[in-house]
């Protein structure tokens, strides 16, 4: 898999991530800044490092599973693993300009 293919797959993964919304905030998890890293290895195994808006987030159990399942629907993806971290802790500063605008913070 060449660099261009990896970039294409990365872009496709971002599109999938942008289709997943935080249930409490009408903004997708990517624009919210919950996705810290997306790694793709040469075998097309994907690892996503993400956080939640809070450790007590009501979807702490289901959101990572939803991310894994949706990313796995991409034909090129062999496997997907989601790791949750709270380091660094999520803050509103991590939201994209688009998310801040959507939520009236700008």
Please explain how this structure is put together.
With about 110 residues, the chain is α+β, with helices and mostly antiparallel strands. About 30% of the residues lie in helices and about 15% in strands. It has one domain (about 5-90): GMP Synthetase, Chain A, domain 3 (2-Layer Sandwich), CATH 3.30.300.130. The protein has three helices and three strands. The chain has a three-stranded mixed β-sheet with strand order 1-2-3, covered by helices on one side. The longest helix has 15 residues, at about 5-15.
Search tags:
106 residues, alpha+beta, GMP Synthetase, Chain A, domain 3, three-stranded mixed beta sheet, 30% helix, 17% strand, globular
How many structurally independent domains? 1
- Through-space gap between termini: 41 Å
Major sheet, described briefly? 3 strands, mixed
CATH class: Alpha Beta
On the 0 to 100 scale, the average pLDDT is: 93
CATH architecture classification name: 2-Layer Sandwich
Output the CATH homologous superfamily. Fe-S cluster assembly (FSCA)
% residues in beta strands = 15-25%
- Poorly predicted runs of 5 or more residues: none
- State the helix count: 3
């Amino acid at each position: 898999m060449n660099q261009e293919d990896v970039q294409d797959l990365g872009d496709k993964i971002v599109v999938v991530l942008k289709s997943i919304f935080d249930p409490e905030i009408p903004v997708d998890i990517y624009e919210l800044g919950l996705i810290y890293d997306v790694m793709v290895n040469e075998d097309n195994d994907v690892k996503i490092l993400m956080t939640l808006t809070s450790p007590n987030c009501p979807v702490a159990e289901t959101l990572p599973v939803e991310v894994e399942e949706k990313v796995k629907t991409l034909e090129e993806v062999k496997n997907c693993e989601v790791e949750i971290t709270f380091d660094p802790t999520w803050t509103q500063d991590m939201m994209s300009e688009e998310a801040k605008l959507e939520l009236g913070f700008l």
